[in-house]
User: Fold diguanylate cyclase from Oceanisphaera sediminis.
Amino acid sequence: MRIGTMIVRVWVLLLASFASFLSHAEVGDSLQLDEAVHSSADHQRWYPLDASLARAPLHKLQQQLTGEAAAVDSLFGRAGTFVTRVPITNTRRQTWFVVPGANFIDTGIAYWQPDEGPPRMLAEFSQLSDDLTPRLMHTQVLPLWLQDQEAGQLWIVVQAKHFATPVPLTFYSQQAFYHHQFMVNSTTIGAIAIMLTLTLLSLAIYVRTRQSLALTYAGYVGLHALGWAAAAGAINGVTAHDGLNVTYAGMHLFPFAIACASLFACGLFNCTEQHPGLARVLRWLAITVTLLGTVMLWLPFQVTFYLSHVIALLWVPLSLWIGMTMLSNEDFRAKYYLIGNLFYSAALVYYLVSHSSLVSGLAYPELAVVMALAIDCVCILFSLSEWLKIKQNDFNRVFYESRIDPLTQVGNRLLLQERLSDLSDAYLIMFIDFDGMKAINDSMGHDAGDHFLSEASRLMHERIGHTGEIFRTGGDEFVWLVRGTTTDQLPEIRRHLEGTISNIETVLHANWPMSGISFGLATSEDSANASACLAIADRKMYQHKTAKQSRRNRGVNISATGSAQPREIRPETTQGR
Assistant:
């Protein structure tokens, strides 16, 4: 926990440094455009305007402000229509780009009123008409072309359901704007592309594995990607039409993304089995924010905006606490989860602060979040991969244990059935039964009997492990399965197996004199399928056992095919049938 606390403190310091570094210097009421970047604060800059005048001509705006209506302290947290006028003096001939620092603008119109000459309309710059102005993610931009030493007033009208931040005006020279545009757009598009790619990857994982955790990860990443694509204005560029500003959709999608994040955390750390209390909290949180997100579709956007921020304030400390708690429990899936959430949480805090009156002039809050979110999604993908690796290891262990005999470490009946179902072409099956097991258990104990079976399995594996497989199908019953390349090889393989089993019998008989081996051998030529071939080998094994018992009474050995042989002649010298 001390490590986690130290990490959080470091991030707070970094966040403070980041905020200090990115804060713009602000200028007074009158702007002299003589540097690359100028920023004009929105403090008492904007005047409320009747909504019917949002697209009014300049002379009506001038009439509206003739009486010097009272300016608002800031547009932060407000809704409606507002107008501002900025006295400007230009020092050199060029095009300037004016960027209002607003996330949401339904209507935006700008006019230029020179001190000498007629006024002119500059541009409409809302999300619904950003094809008329240079494209800039997260906000709008309007060009302002001025002559050398030209002076006048810039009039700007903005209308929105909610102004999420103070709305300063930033003036960029051409070179500074293109640099700013490239940085903002490429970073945003790159981060969204990463998230969408990870979404598709996780959906592919879900299709292959049917693991619900991959689906909740896809929901978490995909909804964030779509939300930020909407908030950045990328979706409006494709589907924009009058009356529908998709930019607001990002706030509506956020609760559903957090619901997926809650379910993902619950599944990632196996909370249902290992942390039932936390599992209940995460499930109830997912249900609550899902219902809240549904209700928010019918609420005023200002309410939706603040509710989304309340959800963020709840999720940030909870996700950090989960990461630090799981890491302290040595659940190393949490290291990636915690790192990602540290980035995301720090960016969310920065974003929340920028959307408050605590600090003014914080730059690039949206970029901070979208970049941190992309890093978070990559880190959490690592957590998902660790979880899948654990699941794969568990599956392999269960698969192994369900198909491997624990005493002899050879395949069991289930694995034999799987192998038989895959057989084709040429193959041989030998059915083996160890004689004398009851005598070994009765005279030497069951531990000795287990040791005998283990030793017999080891010998069989050593002798045929490189050419075939061994399976234990019962207490002292085993099956050899050997694949051949062609049917012409089967007679030679048959002779080799008969000789091998005879040698194994000799080795075992030296340590366990009461032991013996009965076997039956069949090939793919003896039957139409593998199951029938196994049945033939089983029947021949019993014939061999019966013949051995009968001949033992008369002092004569018998071969696996049932033909009488002198005792001193070994099975490997027989020619089969």
Q: What stands out?
A: The longest helix spans residues 365-403.
